[in-house]
Automatic annotation (TrEMBL):
GO biological-process terms attached to the record: L-tyrosine catabolic process
Ranges where the Aminotransferase class I/classII large domain occurs: 93-426
Modified residues (N6-(pyridoxal phosphate)lysine): K272
Cofactor: pyridoxal 5'-phosphate
Protein name: Aminotransferase TAT2
GO molecular function: L-tyrosine-2-oxoglutarate transaminase activity; pyridoxal phosphate binding
Matching InterPro entries: Aminotransferase_I/II_large, NHTrfase_class1_PyrdxlP-BS, PyrdxlP-dep_Trfase, PyrdxlP-dep_Trfase_major, PyrdxlP-dep_Trfase_small, TyrNic_aminoTrfase
Top-level division of the source organism's lineage: Eukaryota
Natural source organism: Iris pallida (Sweet iris)
Coiled coil location: none
């Protein structure tokens, strides 16, 4: 813990007398260095922090290939024909959206998100169930903030998405980790979920399709998850940032299909499927026919009233962006992703010291196990990422950052030629380092 006392910056202090009625107070005027919130710990590993450290050791003679941070939006093979700028240009030019938007989000955008999420559900969402946020990250932040009660805990997946842990810390919520099981297609260890939960557990966080594992849960597993949450009487925070980004025969099924068993807060974003991460538009949707989240929703209204959401002009473009008319674009993106997933999976399978237990079925990531005992000069995942950068200028994320030591996360939302080049470099690196 950081010290809670303020550190004097200057030794010159003057004493002033302040007359406060009869009493005379002596106040030391000392220049102080303000402490920041001690929960903002510099020791915590963040993806961005580790990535910048890795970037600093890149081999200057090789062009950097980043398979680190998950942003495919800059590559032409994905962004070509992206149909979302026109609706945005329209909303900017109309000039009618220059005022403050409603703090929960503009009615038409909330309505569009509600309709988008309701497709195929028995229980449809309405406009008032949806709150618009500044990207999926703010959706994570407000969902956790609103659920936070004194002494509470939250169940998070391991490996996971680091902002959950960071926001838990900032809110003073205890994070408890359940495992995703590589041998079982990265399904959740639901026995462990049951053993971790207690009467202070306020949410079970489920990420599907999954970052970092690339898994997509079957309807059967989703049902088991909902049954577990229902038995334990805890709501599910369903992070569906990668909704519909499923391929290779798997299909995305929303957690909200099971709201007869457990209440669900669905988190989403335009960042991944729509490839506009910089536009910062996300949402929290209450899928709660059982009504167990009524109070939480009131809390969300109070919170959103003091929280600034996404820009008005982006909100105005949402109905068009979410419409069915862009299906061809989404299909094309999935075709490229599936091809990339196969290329990467095929390469990893050929490398002796690396192992991945299943082919990615969704999102844009794969988790790869590193057999450090077979690689010279590599004691852990951090070493692997660093040495790979030093020699091959290929950036991957060490699993330690995500809670899984001696694994690495590899992003494959890159053009085919770049990925093939990266695969060749990873392969030759591992071959050079292989201990026979
Ligand atoms: C990217 C991501 C988010 C955050 O989305 P942004 O819109 O980029 O803020 C949330 N959850 C998961 C699992 C993600 O991968």
């Amino acid at each position: 813990m950081a010290p809670s006392t303020q550190v004097p910056m200057s030794t010159t202090s003057t004493t002033t007398e302040i007359s406060n009625g009869a009493a005379v107070l002596h106040v030391d005027k000392v220049k102080v260095a303000r402490c920041c919130n001690p929960n903002l710990s510099p020791d915590k590993l963040s993806i961005r922090g580790v990535v910048s450290e890795l970037l600093s050791v890149a081999n200057a003679e090789k062009v950097l290939i980043s398979l680190g941070v998950g942003d495919a939006s800059s590559y032409q093979c994905f962004s070509e024909g992206k149909p979302f700028s026109r609706p945005l240009v329209h909303s900017v030019e109309a000039g009618t959206f220059d005022c403050y938007p409603h703090s929960f989000g503009s009615p038409s955008a909330r309505h569009a998100v509600a309709e988008y999420l309701s497709k195929g559900l028995k229980h449809c969402l309405c406009e008032s169930d949806v709150f618009l946020t500044s990207g999926g990250t703010q959706a994570v932040q407000v969902a956790l903030t609103v659920l936070c009660t004194p002494g509470c805990n939250v169940l998070l997946p391991r490996p996971g998405f680091p902002p959950y842990e960071s926001f838990c810390e900032i809110c003073n919520m205890e994070a408890r980790y359940y495992d995703l099981l590589p041998q079982r297609n990265w399904e959740m260890d639901l026995d462990q979920v049951r053993s971790l939960a207690d009467c202070n557990t306020v949410a079970l966080v489920v990420i599907n399709p999954n970052n970092p594992c690339g898994s997509v849960y079957s309807p059967k597993h989703l049902l088991q998850i909902a049954e577990t949450a229902g038995d334990l009487n805890i709501p599910i925070v369903a992070d569906e940032t990668y909704a519909h980004m499923a391929y290779g025969g798997s299909k995305f099924v929303p957690m909200a299909s099971f709201t007869n068993l457990a209440s669900v807060m669905t988190l989403g974003s335009l960042s991944k499927r729509f490839l506009v991460p910089g536009w910062r538009l996300g949402w929290v949707a209450f899928c709660d026919p059982l009504g167990t989240l009524k109070q939480v929703k009131v809390g969300m209204e109070l919170l959103m009233n003091v929280t600034a959401g996404p820009a008005s002009v982006i909100q105005a473009a949402v109905p068009d962006i979410l419409s069915d008319s862009h299906d061809q674009f989404h299909k094309k993106v999935l075709t490229v992703l599936e091809h990339s997933a196969d290329t990467l999976y095929g390469t990893i399978k050929q490398i002796e010291a690396l192992k991945c237990h299943s082919r990615p079925q969704g999102s844009m990531f794969i988790m790869v196990e590193v057999d450090t005992a077979r690689l010279r000069g590599i004691n852990n995942d951090m070493d692997f990422a660093k040495e790979l950068m030093k020699e091959e200028s290929v950036l991957v994320v060490p699993g330690t950052v995500l809670g899984l030591k001696n694994w690495v996360r590899i992003f494959f939302g890159t053009p085919a030629d770049l990925l093939t080049d990266a695969c060749d470099r990873i392969k030759s690196f591992c071959e050079r380092r292989l201990i026979p």
